[in-house]
Design a protein that fits this description.
The complex is a heterodimer. By secondary structure, chain A is mostly helical. Chain A has 12 helices and no strands. Chain B contains 13 helices and no strands. The chains are: A mainly alpha, B mainly alpha.
């Protein structure tokens, strides 16, 4: 029997592919906008959401989406205008929100008197036992989110690369920032259900960061980031199938190796590094 | 008088328990170093670095457990090595956000690997080790571990105080400090090593996932309440210790509330309160408010 004969592996590959595509596309903009800390916090707040939902008897999916979207709004409100570096106090706000929400998640798990396996699944995810229904619901959320990203992609790119000029040209920079954080929240909530809250960030940051080291061209970069995400997810799933070790460890290690390799080649060929110039060319 | 007696009558039974005495002893030392280090972490906008180090702490601790070594060995070893590494890679001892994010995303993956190795090799009794590394186990400290934690905490605090003046100068006015011969880069790396130590130390109390709250929230509250650096440093330390004491007492009063949650919740509520005070005092200036700029006299005082 090959691994494709098992329905659970097929579903794992399907769900992993959806998550990799969404994370690759959203993550590319996250890395471009230097919102890694916000993205990390968004991916972590799914944990208390899911734990809270389980505590009051709901499906964890509600908790993931509810908390990730709410956190996206809060961070968007607390953040300074895009483009300026995070001031120390705002990053302290994000850090405090993150620690507090994780603490709440731990409290919910304690109040639920749940078993510790449930806790590790929420944190580190489980590729096993994904149902057809779950794959469909992932797809149902992923498609509108990707369409929405496609619709705002051009102004968002403009606002991310050069916020001041974009604002002067009448692009609603602040509104775009809020919408983008909401979409990032959707991506985080999707991925959390498969990879667990702690490992979402790996799919959100590593393939896009690698793509941006390799090319500065937006479309090529997003495509590359999605492809890298798919490749490491598939490879990670297959490796986890044949070994007793967890999928997350393989996915993060493979994507980090790709990042280090890209950086190594980038050091040799300085011109290959991220350069905003081609982005400006595509925009004007 | 009766009020004071009532408080005493409530507090005495708490410290009558050996595990609570140990928790208070360790918690005080840990919170003291966390508050002092956190003040500079917030001042230097290195909260994300602290976030990364907290995840490194998780991986280090589990690597030590998987290898069958003392948990603290991996905890302190991993955080110090990664902290110094980040300092060496970054310009002037500060690393790029995307680089930090990439490294710690991978670190977490490794942590998961070590967790699975450890839980598959050991019997069910040790299955909770991963959870106590992630969320802390301050009530489970032995007397020896508590004394060691308190001692290390005081030593880290001493280290921070030792470099406090030049570090303040370098953080507030890097160019001028460098021109005056302050070793800015070495200070940055040395400070990151202290952050690593504090992260490892704090993991023992509130766990790797929650230590960012104790690092950032009291410090951010202190930054909101005063712009004077040395007063802020003292206030941040005091608030962190206060949050730890209140949290420990609260978890004693309500046994279903884990102490790490109570400590972080107290610290974050303090920060929210300080923000509200600050906001009503200077309404309108909150949005886009820059980091607190100390007055010219204070800068003079630091330069000496």
């Amino acid at each position: 029997m090959t691994l494709f004969d098992y329905p659970f592996m097929i579903n794992a590959l399907r769900a992993g592919s959806i998550v990799a595509i969404v994370s690759g596309a959203m993550g590319w903009f996250m890395v471009l906008r230097r919102q890694t800390f916000a993205g990390h916090t968004l991916s972590l707040v799914g944990f208390p959401g899911a734990a809270g939902a389980i505590l009051i008897g709901l499906s964890p999916a509600f908790g993931y989406f509810g908390f990730c979207l709410a956190a996206g709004v809060i961070i968007a409100m607390a953040s300074p205008p895009v483009g300026s570096a995070l001031y120390s106090e705002e990053s302290a706000v994000i850090g405090s929100v993150q620690a507090f929400s994780l603490a709440c998640g731990f409290l919910f798990v304690n109040l639920y008197h749940g078993n510790l396996n449930g806790l590790t699944n929420l944190l580190f995810g489980s590729f096993l036992g994904i149902t057809n229904g779950q794959v469909l619901s992932l797809l149902a959320v992923a498609l509108p989110a990707l369409v929405a990203l496609g619709l705002i992609a051009r102004p968002l790119l403009f606002a991310s690369v050069d916020p001041e000029v974009a604002a002067a040209a009448g692009v609603p920079v602040r509104l775009l920032a809020v919408v983008f954080l909401l979409l990032l929240g959707v991506a985080a909530a999707e991925a959390s259900q498969i990879t667990g809250s702690l490992l979402v960030f790996a799919l959100l940051v590593l393939p896009p960061a690698t793509a941006q080291v390799i090319t500065g061209r937006p479309l090529l970069g997003i495509g590359l980031s999605v492809l890298l995400g798919l490749a490491v997810t598939w490879a990670g799933l297959v490796m986890a199938y044949y070994t007793p070790y967890p999928t997350g460890a393989f996915i993060t290690t493979l994507s980090f190796a790709a990042y280090v390799a890209a950086r190594g080649i980038g050091v040799l060929n300085v011109r290959a590094r991220t350069d905003p110039a081609p982005m400006r060319e595509t925009l004007t | 008088m009766t009020g004071a007696l009532a408080v005493l009558g409530w507090v005495l039974p708490i410290i009558g328990h050996p595990f609570m005495r140990n928790a208070f002893l360790a918690g005080t030392g840990i919170a003291a170093c966390c508050g002092a280090v956190g003040y500079f972490v917030v001042l230097r906008s290195q909260v994300f670095t602290g976030d990364a180090l907290s995840h490194v702490a998780f991986t280090g601790a589990l690597a030590a457990l998987a290898a069958g070594a003392d948990l603290r060995l991996g905890l302190f070893g991993a955080t110090i090595v990664v902290a110094v590494g980040m300092g060496l890679l970054g310009r002037s001892g500060r690393a790029d956000d995307v680089v930090i994010g990439s490294v710690f995303a991978w670190m977490l993956g490794l942590g998961v690997l070590f967790l699975s190795i450890y839980t598959s090799n050991s019997s069910g009794a040790n299955g909770t080790a991963g959870v106590s590394v992630l969320f802390g186990s301050i009530l489970g400290l032995s007397a020896g571990a508590a004394r060691a934690a308190a001692l290390i905490g005081v030593m880290i605090l001493g280290g921070v105080l030792l470099i406090a003046r030049p570090l303040l100068f370098a953080s507030l006015d890097e160019a001028v400090a460098a021109a005056r011969g302050v070793p800015v880069r070495a200070l940055g790396i040395g400070f990151l090593a202290l952050v690593g130590l504090a992260a490892a130390e704090t993991t023992q109390a509130v766990g790797a996932l929650l230590l960012l709250g104790l690092l950032a929230a009291p410090a951010a509250a202190a930054h909101r309440l005063t712009t004077h650096p040395f007063r802020g440093l003292a206030l941040s330390t005091a608030l962190a210790i206060g949050a730890t004491w209140v949290g420990l007492a609260a978890s004693y009063a309500f046994p279903s509330v884990p102490p790490s949650f109570a400590i972080i919740a107290t610290a974050v509520v303090t920060f929210a309160g300080a923000s509200a005070l600050h906001g009503s005092a200077r309404r309108g200036s909150l949005r886009g408010s820059r980091k607190a700029e100390p007055s010219a006299e204070v800068l003079e005082e630091i330069r000496g």
